[in-house]
Amino acid sequence: MSTTELAWFKSSYSGSSGDDCVEVAVTEQAVHVRDSKDVTRPDFAVGRDGWARFVGFAAGA
């Protein structure tokens, strides 16, 4: 599956004025992350376990 076929959604923490936007797309194997202002640049992907640890860390868990 190419990254253009993924279902991207904007982070709820992204700015409401359209700046500082991060988008993610979840697949069975990984979570893909990209800058919504420049979708031509490559995204990066992390394993679902790594993403869960990151989100837990970011939330102060």
Helix share bin? 10-25%
| Main sheet strand line-up | 1-2-3-4
User: On the 0-100 scale, what is the average pLDDT?
Assistant: 80
Number of beta strands: 4
Question: Which geometry do the CA atoms define?
Answer: globular
- Kindly, what is the distance between the CA atoms of the first and last residues, rounded to a whole number of angstroms? 33 Å
> How many domain units?
1
Residue windows where pLDDT falls under 50 for at least 5 positions? none
Summarize the helix and strand pattern as letters: EEEEH
Summed up, the helix count is 1
Structural class: alpha+beta
Radius of gyration: 12 Å
| Beta strand % | 25-35%
Largest sheet: 4 strands, antiparallel
Protein name: DUF397 domain-containing protein
Organism: Streptomyces calvus
Pfam families: DUF397 (PF04149)
Domain DUF397: 6-57
Q: What would your notes on this structure say?
A:
The chain has 61 residues and is of the alpha+beta class. It has one domain (3-58). 18% of the residues lie in helices and 28% in strands. It contains one helix and four strands. It has one helix spanning 48-58, and strands at residues 9-10, 22-26, 30-35, 44-47. A hairpin with an 8-residue loop joins strand 3 (30-35) and strand 4 (44-47). The chain is globular. It starts with 8 loop residues before the first strand and ends with a helix.
Question: Brief description of this entry?
Answer:
The protein is α+β, with helices and mostly antiparallel strands and 61 residues long. It is built from one helix and four strands; from the N terminus they run ββββα.
